Predict the structure.
Amino acid sequence: MKEQLQILLMLQKIDIEINKEDNRKKRLPDQIRKKEEAIANLEKKYQKEKNELKELQLRVRRKEIDAKTINDKIEKHQSELYGGKISDIKELKQLQKAIESLKKERDQVEEDLLILMDEEDTWKLRVSEIEAELSESKEQLKQIQQQVEQQQIEIQKYIQKKQIEREELANKITDRALMERYLLLWNEKKGEAVVEIEDSICSGCNLSLPSDIIYHLQRDDHLIICPNCNRILVWKGESL
Ligand SMILES: [Zn+2]
């Protein structure tokens, strides 16, 4: 029994390793999901900033139309003023006044326009920066996908190698009942089914083992299980 238990311990070590690697393999796509999420957020931000830029460009366009409308009015008044058709001094003075005030209005509109155009430039830069960031992120995603795929293949190869080692050990366990008990426990506990006992504590469930169990564990060559968690116990020290 003692020899069988030692083989079982080695087999369990491989099962733990396979389980660990399998979990690692399953977690690998998390990296892809994380990057995809970041890209989706960036995409949203990009659309939002682009819409705001469009809005700003419309405001610029409207201001330009305003400026043109005022300029047209000024030109019309000026041609009236110098056209020679109006001779009434009072009327001419009113026309001059109107031109003056239109020019002031135009200066204000042009000033506003300059500010808006400046803002437009800044916004364009922001949008193009996000665009660059987005394409860089997409490139990174491709790389991550390739890495994950490669790592998955490597882990799978490693697991296969470990499974062969496991098979060899399993063949050496001739006690079928022991193997069945182990497999049941492994599935039930989702891991460690055989525990090595160093002092008097079952490391599986932390139970302080009764002294008669320790006594038999140190001396007998038959299967002993934890009375609390049913795990298979193996004495770690020298047999007495
Ligand atoms: Zn226990």
About this structure: The CA atoms of residues 35 and 140 lie 8 Å apart. Strands lie at 194-197, 232-235. The first strand starts at residue 194 and ends at 197. Helices lie at 2-27, 29-82, 89-172, 176-189, 211-219.
